[in-house]
Amino acid sequence: MQSIHDVKIDSRNADILISINGTLYPRNQAVVSVFDSGFILGDGIWECLRLVNSGIPFLREHIERLYEGAKAVFMEVGITPQELVKRLFDCVDANKMRDGVHIRLMVTRGVKATPYQDPRVTISPATIVIIPEYKEPNAQKFQQGLKLFTVNVRRGAPDVQDPKLNSHSKLNCITACIQAANAGADEALMLDPLGFVATCNSTHFFIVRRGEVWTSTGQYCVLGITRVNMIRLCHDNGIPALEKQFSLYDVYGADEAFVTGTFAGLVPVYEIDGRPVRHPLCADAWSGAGPISLRLSKLYKELCTSEATRTLA
Amino acid sequence: MQSIHDVKIDSRNADILISINGTLYPRNQAVVSVFDSGFILGDGIWECLRLVNSGIPFLREHIERLYEGAKAVFMEVGITPQELVKRLFDCVDANKMRDGVHIRLMVTRGVKATPYQDPRVTISPATIVIIPEYKEPNAQKFQQGLKLFTVNVRRGAPDVQDPKLNSHSKLNCITACIQAANAGADEALMLDPLGFVATCNSTHFFIVRRGEVWTSTGQYCVLGITRVNMIRLCHDNGIPALEKQFSLYDVYGADEAFVTGTFAGLVPVYEIDGRPVRHPLCADAWSGAGPISLRLSKLYKELCTSEATRTLA
Amino acid sequence: MQSIHDVKIDSRNADILISINGTLYPRNQAVVSVFDSGFILGDGIWECLRLVNSGIPFLREHIERLYEGAKAVFMEVGITPQELVKRLFDCVDANKMRDGVHIRLMVTRGVKATPYQDPRVTISPATIVIIPEYKEPNAQKFQQGLKLFTVNVRRGAPDVQDPKLNSHSKLNCITACIQAANAGADEALMLDPLGFVATCNSTHFFIVRRGEVWTSTGQYCVLGITRVNMIRLCHDNGIPALEKQFSLYDVYGADEAFVTGTFAGLVPVYEIDGRPVRHPLCADAWSGAGPISLRLSKLYKELCTSEATRTLA
Amino acid sequence: MQSIHDVKIDSRNADILISINGTLYPRNQAVVSVFDSGFILGDGIWECLRLVNSGIPFLREHIERLYEGAKAVFMEVGITPQELVKRLFDCVDANKMRDGVHIRLMVTRGVKATPYQDPRVTISPATIVIIPEYKEPNAQKFQQGLKLFTVNVRRGAPDVQDPKLNSHSKLNCITACIQAANAGADEALMLDPLGFVATCNSTHFFIVRRGEVWTSTGQYCVLGITRVNMIRLCHDNGIPALEKQFSLYDVYGADEAFVTGTFAGLVPVYEIDGRPVRHPLCADAWSGAGPISLRLSKLYKELCTSEATRTLA
Amino acid sequence: MQSIHDVKIDSRNADILISINGTLYPRNQAVVSVFDSGFILGDGIWECLRLVNSGIPFLREHIERLYEGAKAVFMEVGITPQELVKRLFDCVDANKMRDGVHIRLMVTRGVKATPYQDPRVTISPATIVIIPEYKEPNAQKFQQGLKLFTVNVRRGAPDVQDPKLNSHSKLNCITACIQAANAGADEALMLDPLGFVATCNSTHFFIVRRGEVWTSTGQYCVLGITRVNMIRLCHDNGIPALEKQFSLYDVYGADEAFVTGTFAGLVPVYEIDGRPVRHPLCADAWSGAGPISLRLSKLYKELCTSEATRTLA
Amino acid sequence: MQSIHDVKIDSRNADILISINGTLYPRNQAVVSVFDSGFILGDGIWECLRLVNSGIPFLREHIERLYEGAKAVFMEVGITPQELVKRLFDCVDANKMRDGVHIRLMVTRGVKATPYQDPRVTISPATIVIIPEYKEPNAQKFQQGLKLFTVNVRRGAPDVQDPKLNSHSKLNCITACIQAANAGADEALMLDPLGFVATCNSTHFFIVRRGEVWTSTGQYCVLGITRVNMIRLCHDNGIPALEKQFSLYDVYGADEAFVTGTFAGLVPVYEIDGRPVRHPLCADAWSGAGPISLRLSKLYKELCTSEATRTLA
What we know:
The structure is a homohexamer. By secondary structure, chain A is α+β, with helices and mostly antiparallel strands. Helices cover 27% and strands 26% of the residues of chain A. Chains in contact: A-B, A-C, A-E, A-F, B-C, B-D, B-E, C-D, C-F, D-E, D-F, E-F. Chains A and F meet through helix 7 of A and helix 2 of F. Strand 3 of chain A pairs antiparallel with strand 3 of chain B, so a sheet runs across the interface.
């Protein structure tokens, strides 16, 4: 495994309890019907969250994004946000988890009468699954940085399947990931329909150019909560940050580059399409994260700790 | 339910046996892990097939399409085509089914070590599920025809998620279906990225204009086996048939229109975007299927019978 | 009639005088040649204006937009802006109108020697028509709000027919309106060529998200004067307002939505594509205009009154 | 006047009778209300036809295209095709016309209650106007050929305003024509949204390459009846003819080029974007129409004569 | 070197004579001014040709393409086709070459008064350079086949720089080639603006599917003479051949694949994006060229020999 | 000559020394091999610079852009930025130049083993050419202004050949320039792929609207150093300046327009597509540069003087 999730599997995860529609099951009994909309059709919306000191950073943003995504695809979550939060903590508490935990929260349109795409043949409420696992980012990846490769697989138009959706229909990202792996890279850099830089396949992409932090307009990526927090941290700490259209020309000439995500926070990038990530007039080899990347990484970790909470507020 | 699958659920389906990775389970015990690639990510390829006189029409085409789709997404089916066919018939035979049966055959990338999109974290062979159900098209829908509505949701570009793929990531079709339902229609008519007519959300779309049968180029739809057979039947029976680019202008001025699919064969359309389907100089109300639609429907049923088989050959 | 112009026709309008090339005619004698560029080709530019206390709000903006539009299509208005303003007031004064009046001001390329599109076969100066009518927005529509439906008909590219033009070639908007009516809605929501939200067919579209007012970039809509005034009012009253690219995902998750136009000012929206307009975490039914919509509506009415004028300044 | 309609105005046209909703009016009394959908909105569909020996060539094709266009924009013509044909001949017969006549037949959505785009505020049946004029193509233009210039104004997408429609919303063609005139040319050559060659602003465009006749796919032009007849003539006379995608590269390297239309039939082109129209290895100056252009022109004139008719049949 | 030109440099090439504007120079004295349009701007058109038995296969096609390209970019070659052919053979004859020779024929817009892009500052006739070299395709590459990788660099639109042009402005192909090399491949597979398969960076691309030979529509590649000859050979030998739109889905499921070019004729492909080139139901490893590739390769070699000529005719 | 470079050729330029790979040659001996990547393939990156009081304004920006461009196309410049600056001044000093000098600095990928596009067949370091010439903008052009014409040739997508690159592959700009010349204009105005205004063929384009300076987003033009300086001057001098998407509608209605470039600084525009450049309500003929154009021109000249330098720093 070379990907960003290239982590040792924590042996404690063999014994976790998983919440399905409010009931807790051991891992090996955590199943869904083959008639479930998620399995048959990728018809669902999900979140990933971190557990920090028994709280979840940015809890409200995650819950709001989940309900917004469900509304976008005309799906009822079926329980209130408050009930959903309770289920989340019931699950992690039952697992006696406090920290270093990654949670996958999934809501699908429920069980179908027959395997068919029309929502009108659904016969159950939404299926709600919560998987909490002990999972920490690989520290060595942070030291070394990632190798990206710009792939031919593109982000799509919002009138087809809105790339803002964090859905169970992930084939676009998966095929991008495969092509990057075929080129020997960790993660795929993906362009938007106009040929500008959009995002990575499972993370958001940032560059640092002459003291400014740039990321794409956000119109062709999942509405990243870590992404928004990075921009907020820049604004709060006097680092100019722009959401803007830019091309690979700008990327190849950047001083630093990094990716972000709920799981790993900020991870630096050391090479893109065979070009080392450093200022074009700089001949020295880059090593480790650049100064702005390092600073943002530290700020973000602090933010996660300070914003971890158990209530929707 | 107003959709094309608006059928009475056959009570016999409560007792069917479903094949999962070669083992047969009663319907209510037919489950997959919540870590399955299909459930988490819509990462799978599927087929639907009909059972006619204990055989499956166009069996080789279906099996070939399944393996081609799997290769397109860089996924191993894991067993040979011959073994897969054997599993299909083992399942329907165990159910003592002979006719009037619809089969959903699904292959996903298998179980993940952790919920993450990268194929490199998959830890099992492909998951193979076979669901056979007693299911017949609604005869009344055939009499009355369908009402279509052209939706804002588009078919996508092949460099994002190839619309030729018959995958588990179906959100594009589902949101199109929802918008058509919101407009009071049975099925959505979908345009391609250039604004030309592509397909319906779960069926293929044909018009008849001045004695010619037209369907889209096929570049923006699932590689329909029924679609190909309709074109073949036209060629074999002296009906001019064209795969071509055309727009709603051509649709609104058509003499007849119909949709096709493995499940229901050919179903006529009586109204599109509020316009009755009939020649623009014709004032009489259309009723039932037009002459070419009727002829093709009959020819197609005969073809299904004659081509039903139990071997790949 | 379900549209935004669903108003009782004021009986006083039967007796209005209409200005054609500077001469006043009773309504039933207000005619143009069948050789007029407007009739044959939709080759003209128009404005709508309101009469408030005998003055016209934003008069200079309207006149400037008219001349700018004429220049864009290489057409001479033929009289000076000052002369045109005089004609406007000559017409409303002759009608003894003071308030509650909607004015349609139209300038076409004039009469052709023969029905042909080339401007070089025009044989008269521009045709200038002014129609003033008593017309007030329907108060009930404001209470209840509008129902929008996103249609398949798109706004076009600027290199085809610039959507900024307020021209007599309106077929794009009309077919969008028809499709929305077919879906049972009041007004069509239209996407731009990239699939982002552009505008409604006869009004401009705004959403309110988490305290911010968003409208499209304006590149794919008529250069709306009410639209610009709404943004100005936001800026002047401490309400964050953004002209930005956004998609239906953002619309479905909005807190409020409204449309604007010279005729009706601001009209709230209560439903879009079957989804109620309210925050995704909010379960209560929305009723009437939201707080920011209400505030802007009030501010706009005051602005109209304060900026009504009879001189170009 | 430099355009293709650069003809002497026939003095007999001063006294023609024009049919409006079935009543005949002298030219100077032929008027429509300023509330007409055609004048206000370009909301109408039209045909041009030729009178040859008291008959109209391709009459059925023209009438069918008119009703098809009306259906496409959801407009009722209001009278039967047979009644419409009768009106056509009533008008030309009342004018005692037999030959050398060009007829403009226009159908708009009718009179509005108030100037507003929504079809739901229309209060009359369709407005039907028939203008017959003595008008012959300029023979000198045929000798000399046309000068074309490829303009920046593009043909649009079918999901905006279908370019197949022959409507009253003609601003796209008009602005293209203006830009060509600004470059000193007779007629504009227009590209499609992908940058391929589509059509001219008021005529259809053909090239001859190495013995083959090429024209565009037809997806981005009015459904030309002369265009279809040229292709038919090619097929019937052993000249290979292709409707295909091609670019300016292919045009600049063509052997011959010509434009077609109902009014002028076939008119040769002698220069495109400053390049003489002739085989790239040929140094001799081209003069007059090339051999295939001449042959098709002659064949087309014969076809018009043989297919002129007074009945729909 | 891993590319298709991965050939041993023939030592005889050190002593070749190169023709510049009709004069022969030894290789190390073959130079052009730094003010040449080719050097400064990539402003030129070129051909490559083979010498077979002292003749050049498809000589007329190459010369015609050169003059067509020059006309497309509004450039005068300055000498007649016959004079150009004479120069070609003068050069190869002076080198006493008869066979196994690759010729690069280049025509640029000539010398500039100053380094500026406007053709109006050119002060000399076209620069004509002819480089003949001993160069044979690598037989081992033919045995083994090529490894292709689909890159993010696309073929462009015809309204930007027509991909049909064989020009000196080659940066698009070069950056595609670089990205493929970065992924460890021999040659880049490139998509068109809509995401369909267009061509390779320096060769044309074909697949064989179920007995049919497919290549792209040709709208996004250099007008390949070898490409046209392959299609001609298919037609003449009963092999169905289609120029059509297709996507990577179709490529990954192909039975065979190969590339073509004047230099190497036909070269098989054994792997594309990590997928072996063979039928999806076929588990056996592919080795060497497939049967249709082999047959076409043989037929093409025979054609080259039979069509080698020294006259334009 | 009508173009922006319509200058008298300074007779002193006949005797200049040109630097090639560090050696100085008289103009008529300044040559490169016909195997050079620049000549064969347009495979190089270049800069133009001005000499002002023996210094070069914005020297660091130019050098940085050169290295950034080289990195973007995966090319090694081969010497350090400091060495390159030394070569620049060695060359101008050897020519005893101090002022009124335009310098073309070109870096190509070097000499090829054989004429082929793959960078892997390059056998020398980069070719570095420096051409300094006495060259001053034409003062009369500044007085009179330029005439622009919007052409059909478009700027391209970044995924084809990034328009930000200042490369030797200039055919796109050249064909645009030719089409403008064919229309009788000085310079071409070019649109971007979406139909919005991008840039001129050899200069950057600005408009002044109601006191604001607008230029395109910069995504479809060379990363202009003069362009950035103009925006900087606006910001520093209280003139609102926006980089934004806009269309020809906005251009035709502008108050002023001008183009910029390293060579000529700011040059006003007096006519675009036949429309005079002035406010649409203004009837007076425009003459000379408008007030904001004049002010920026003066400010820019001062900036060039103050920022001319001989060191990178």
